[in-house]
Design brief:
Radius of gyration: 20 Å
CATH superfamily of the largest domain: Isopropylmalate Dehydrogenase
CATH topology of the largest domain: Isopropylmalate Dehydrogenase
Number of domains: 2
Strand content: 15-25%
Helix content: 40-55%
Bound molecules: 3-isopropylmalic acid, magnesium ion
Strand order of the largest sheet: 2-1-3-12-11-4-5-10-8-9
Shape: globular
Largest sheet: 10 strands, mixed
Amino acid sequence: MTVLPGDGIGPEVVGAGVSILEEVARRYSISLLLDRDDIGWAAVRRYGVPLADETLDRVKKSDAVLLGAVGGAEAESKDFAIRPEAGLLALRKGMDLYANLRPVRVLPPLLDASPLKPEIVGATDLLVVRELVGGIYFGEPRGRDRTEQGEERALNTMVYTVPQIERVVRMAFSLAMGRRKRVISVDKANVLDVSLLWREVVTRIHEEFPEVELDHQYVDNCAMQLIRAPEQFDVIVTGNLFGDILSDEAAVLAGSIGMLPSASLGTGGAMYEPVHGSAPDIAGQDKANPLATILSVAMMFRHTFGIGEAGDLIEQAVLSTLEKGVRTPDLHAEEARYVGTRAMGECVLEEIDRIRPDGR
Ligand code: IPM
Ligand code: MG
């Protein structure tokens, strides 16, 4: 296991996540070997680059990575190659983490935390499967140059190969088989060549999964449907850029982006990280919500350790903590006991103990 706390609130939320990880691993007799390293701005400070070669080598040897967040105001003015985000992208690419799973569930005690009406968000239980190592994030050519007329310009390239689409789409259909067996593929096939190919491949892979119901939506329509009628979604599969945008939007349904966990799976290991960013404005103040990281640890038990029961235990403990009215400041509530990052983590630990006093 490698822990990469990163920047901003990363070290705080990862601190809470690691204490849950250690406690639950102990209960299920998993012996953890925790290695720590830096990524993002923290790595720029230590190594001069946002992801050092030795760090990438280390994570490639690990079964799983737990990451906090990267980015922050400090780096705004820096050159693109040493921006903290470049470290995260290099890590995803280096580990070939091609499928990013972002589940969005609305926990009943947080129904009021969303700015949307409870009757709209109430039935949300969806999973965004975002392609993570291709598309416009990595396409070449990219960069800045000048036109023949001397006009300054910048360009990026949206590109997908058939195998890149096939593997993430197959993953999405397989995951749908363990859920409500419904996939909505999101593209912009009325405009983009890449999306036309995407749609063709999705339609062909669908033949391998006849039990799954498939629909296609244009990304603009999907953005609207997500907040109009979110209950229609089970699994959403989409490319890198659309998945980035839609998953932030979907976070509003869950009450706060501070609640959203993620797992990035691929050919060489897995990485678990909260969907939220480094929130430099509240960093170091013990205000950040650690639940997204704690729920990412639950995903780790499920996907890396193969112990669904341990994942359930963590999720139940999060739910009952919220049922008791405990909230971090990002979670709006009429009446609540507001706590900081550390205390929230401790409450979840207490709930784990209360739910399973026998030590399992
Ligand atoms: C995310 C983030 C990253 C992304 C940034 C930090 C590079 O927004 O994980 O969603 O765009 O993928
Ligand atoms: Mg994002």
